[in-house]
Specification:
heterodimer, A: eight-stranded antiparallel β-sheet, two-stranded antiparallel ribbon, 6 helices, 34% strand
């Protein structure tokens, strides 16, 4: 059924600051968060609400897909398609020119960690367990990008076992600013450059097998925000990981980096409800992994690129 | 006598607080022995990745272009924060 549609995910702010054609079509269809079925010309077939009971039942979802397909096919081509073919260069994968071709794309997972002994066993292991009992294990998701030249700068020039090489501080600071933040409960602005107190990550060559460098990653970061002399939030973590880099292909075949430490202070922009009082120091983890999903999903830009464009790389 | 009891009580409370806090803090150690445990806890679980089975295009315009080319309707997933990254 999904193959009968073009599945698209995007931010509710589509059209703001973008090409006029994109915004014109988008605002005919979407008003706020939700699931929408529409024609390429911008005729709404139906709007659904994320989390609505109507979408919690596979049979109902299947029926909806059939209903939307029938509505679409009843329309003439003149109605459901644009008057002329839309230009591909316009918009496109909105940040395509910044995508780090030949570089490194990492999937970033932030996660609330156990706050008392035994909480590890409480983590939901299936979708049906979510929402029951402990919320430990809540998390958020993002991407981290490194250009090809930056990947080269990460790697030790001495490729013998035992060789150590410090990742350029600017690259570790990118991780600390944009990705080692407590966005577990929702969006959160990155730390500012002056708020990074420590950003260290070292690659250690453990062994070389053919064209593969097997390396250990170890380091530490610390970031703290203050405003008008008052503490706002912080995150301090130890880093440990492992990776494998194929020198002949110029790509990582394994990248597992974890940050484990204590977060404190404000959680999520404008967070209310249960998170408003949850400001005491508590453990949080961040993981950086090679993406399991390929394109087109893995082409999605980090939130730092969406908000700051090329400055994300500075 | 009363002050002595108060001091003993305070010491007991502090002792309990320290002992009570120690196990959780001790568990927050990242080293070669605990790496695997933390990796399993932090990495996305299979059910958290089910949505990636759908080939979501990461921008609305891409969907419009492809939908027009292939004469197919769009299924839009719109969130505050991009659904494919931080929300």
């Amino acid at each position: 059924m999904v193959k009968s549609f073009i599945p698209v995910a995007d931010h509710v702010g589509v059209g703001k600051g973008g090409p006029p054609e994109e915004g014109e079509i988008f605002k005919k269809v979407a008003q706020g968060q939700g699931i929408y079925a529409c024609t390429p010309s911008g005729i709404l077939l139906e709007k659904g609400v994320i989390g609505s009971p109507e979408y919690g039942n596979l049979d109902k979802i299947a029926a909806k897909f059939k209903e939307w397909t029938a509505k679409y096919e009843k329309m003439s081509k003149a109605e459901r398609l644009l008057a002329k073919a839309p230009a591909k260069a316009l918009g496109g994968s909105r940040y395509a020119e910044l995508y780090p071709e030949g570089g490194l794309v990492l999937q970033v997972q932030t996660r609330d960690l156990p706050r008392k002994p035994g909480d590890v066993d409480v983590t939901p292991k299936t979708a049906s367990e979510c929402g029951k009992g402990s919320k430990i294990g809540a998390g958020n998701w993002d991407w981290a990008w490194f250009r090809k030249d930056e990947v080269r700068a990460m790697l030790p020039s001495d490729r013998t076992a035992g060789a150590r090489h410090r990742m350029p501080e600017s690259l570790v600071r990118r991780l600390a600013m944009h990705h080692m933040i407590d966005n577990v409960l929702g969006q959160l602005r990155p730390f500012g450059p002056d708020e990074i107190k420590k950003a260290e990550l070292t690659f250690v060559v453990e062994r070389v097998e053919g064209s593969f460098l097997h390396m250990r990653l170890e380091g530490a970061t610390k970031a703290e925000r203050q405003k008008d002399g008052q503490f706002v939030r912080s995150y301090e973590a130890s880093l440990l990981g492992r990776c494998a880099y194929d020198v002949s292909q110029e790509k990582f075949t394994l990248f597992d980096l974890l940050a484990v430490g204590m977060r404190a202070g404000a959680r999520a922009e404008g967070a209310g409800g249960p998170s408003a009082g949850d400001v005491a120091p508590n453990p949080m983890g961040v993981g950086f992994f090679l993406p399991k999903a390929g394109p087109p999903i893995s082409l999605a830009a980090p939130v730092g690129v969406r908000k700051y464009g090329a400055r994300y790389f500075n | 006598m009363y002050k002595r009891l108060l001091a003993i009580g305070a010491a007991l409370l502090i002792g309990v607080a320290v002992v009570g806090a120690a196990p959780a803090q001790q568990e927050l150690v990242l080293n070669d022995q605990t790496f695997r445990k933390w990796h399993e806890f932090i990495a996305p679980r299979p059910f958290e990745l089910e949505w990636t089975q759908v080939p979501w295009r990461p921008s609305f315009w891409e969907g419009v272009v492809e939908g027009h080319e292939k004469d197919k309707p769009l299924l839009l997933w719109i969130m505050n924060g991009h659904p494919l990254s931080e929300t």
